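By convention, each integer encodes one residue's backbone shape. The lines below illustrate.
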Amino acid sequence: MHALLVEDDDRLAHALGTALALRGHTVRRVSRAVEALRLTREAEFVLLDLGLPDLDGLELLRRLRTVCAVPLIVVTARCEERDIVQGLRAGADDYVVKPFRMSELMARIDAVRRRTGGNADPRPTAGPVRVTDVEIDPARRTVTVGGSEVRLTRREFDVLAFLAARPGEVHSREEILDRIWGDAFLGTSRSLDVHVAGIRAKTGRPDLVRTVHGFGYRLGA
């Protein structure tokens, strides 16, 4: 993957560049908005700081989205609710606040690339999926436990079916909320947690949906 890193902090840029390179990515780092606009067409992924010396990062994000649709994550110290909302609405696929854990950022990059097609399986599981004695049938929109049907709400089933489509993958909260609710910013609410709790309670299988602490959920083994 060819990543464009837009970051004016030299120490952080070096750390991010090293982490990406260790994962096999090639990195082009720039520190000014004008350079980012010139090079963005060459990138397959963008990490964007909002605190740039020549142009506000949100304005740069809006301009980038007029010329490219590659996956983009904002990485910034701006942590106010208004900034997060504006960043997501301006076209960011995810929003990470500094300071952050490098492992979490790398996982978010993977999740965004899966969601936007960067690593997506072109033939996701379409038929019924079995997890021990639980069968999830996306086509019929049914869930059975030990042969008996369990009735889930529409949202509960959508969440479960989404996880079952690629049972080996961990999905971030933001990815699930974006796909099911159409709003990644709901990640600050308890909506997803409530629906996951409903799935566990109604199926009587608390391990059917596994929590990956600090990140998201996956289908249980």
